[in-house]
Predict the 3D structure of the following.
Amino acid sequence: MSDEEWELFKVFPDFGPAEALRMQLEHHGVPTRVESRALEVGLGAQFCVFVAKVLAHRARWVVAQLLLTDAERDYLATGKLPGNDK
């Protein structure tokens, strides 16, 4: 794909989260790439996740489905359902 066919989707300060998002999007059929961009010489980098422009809407939908509610986070952390004090 040429550079015009890619859209900047999200920027991360670390590689790990960028790679995790890339893997999730690829799993859902959205072509991606991750590029590192230096902020200034020797001062770190940003990791940019690009998606195929024609599937940017799908990428947004996938990310929206990945978001957890507070109740879901609590359940994953404790194993207890809301209102179940046993």
The first helix runs from residue 15 to 27. Residues 70 and 76 are 10 Å apart (CA to CA).
